[in-house]
Amino acid sequence: MNAFIEPGVPVAIFWLFVGVAIIIQGISKSGFAGGAGILSLPLMMLVMPVDKVAATLLPLLILCDFNAIYHHRSNCNWGHLRAIYLPSILGILAGALVWWWVGREGIDAWGGYIKRFTGVIAILFGLYILAKDRSMAWVQQHHAGRKTAIVAGVAAGFTSTIAHAAGPIVSLYMYSQGMGKSLFVGTVAWTFTLINLTKLPFYVYVDLIDYSVLGFDLYLVPLIPIGSWLGHWMHHRVPERGFSRVIMVLTLVSGVQLVFNVPLVQWAVERVIPLP
Predict the structure, then answer these.
(1) What number is the average pLDDT over the span 244-268?
(2) Which end of the chain, N or C, is less packed with Cβ atoms under 10 Å?
(3) Separation between Cα atoms, residue 159 and residue 167, nearest integer Å
(4) CA-closest candidate to residue 189, choices 41, 96, 80, 91
(5) How far is Cα of residue 173 from the mean position of the Cα atoms in its chain?
(6) pTM score
(7) pLDDT per position as a tens digit, 163-191
(8) 8 A C-beta contact, residue 128 and residue 119
């Protein structure tokens, strides 16, 4: 387990951050507060080495994807999916090349840059959550064409491979196509399933995923249905807008911490949970 914990991070804080991150993924994949999953990666990067975070999340995301497409197996516009998935392969290749280079040069040399990249993405997507309604209204009036699909696909593939953070890119593109809710949700689910499955062999090839990662994932798998159950429970009891605002604040704070290397989140948690 030592390989998964950043030096100096208390074990209680480690499990708190990782546990909350995986539960949030389950909540997000349940359909409640769909953009909430963006918080998981920066939250885990605060307590884990960056390469272990990316590797740990991918098998869990694939399990979530399989559950999503099971419920939406007949809801997919394959034309829109192909338009963004095929270009995403180029982005996945570019992201895999970055991870290969990081492995060759050493995570200590390049891990800080990946943290800052993830922090910037977290800040941008935190701002996206803030302006989500306005963004969706604008996108609804602008049908994305083939060129936009290529750009969005490459960007989605790259950001997904580096930081599992392509959600808003794919969602905004699909939303602009004017599909109904069921087709929209199903097509997005199928898109992420294909993108994540395409990433998997590259993660194995560049030695991100090994047996130790899969063993660690076994501890985390039970948290996914817990998050999914919470998502369904919250759907009828918790205002989605309010929950999304909480996620937005935490995402922005985590992003700022990753970019500027200031322990804001740990400081706040330690005020609530005094540690010896």
Answers:
(1) 74
(2) C
(3) 9
(4) 80
(5) 17
(6) 0.85
(7) 888 887 888 888 888 787 788 888 988 99
(8) no
**Tell me, what amino acid is at 51?**
D
Residue type, 64: C
E strand or H helix at 152: helix 146-163
Between the alpha carbon of residue 183 and those of residues 78, 106, 179, 232, the distances in Å are 10, 43, 6, 20
pLDDT tier at 2 (50, 70, 90 boundaries)?
confident
**DSSP sequence for 38-76:** GGHHHHHHTTS-HHHHHHHHHHHHHHHHHHHHHHTTT--
pLDDT 10s digits, 262-276: 665 555 555 555 555
| Whole-angstrom distance, CA of residue 232 vs CA of residue 180 | 21
Please give the Cα distance from 271 to 131 (Å, whole number): 31
Q: Hey, is 107 helix, strand or coil?
A: helix
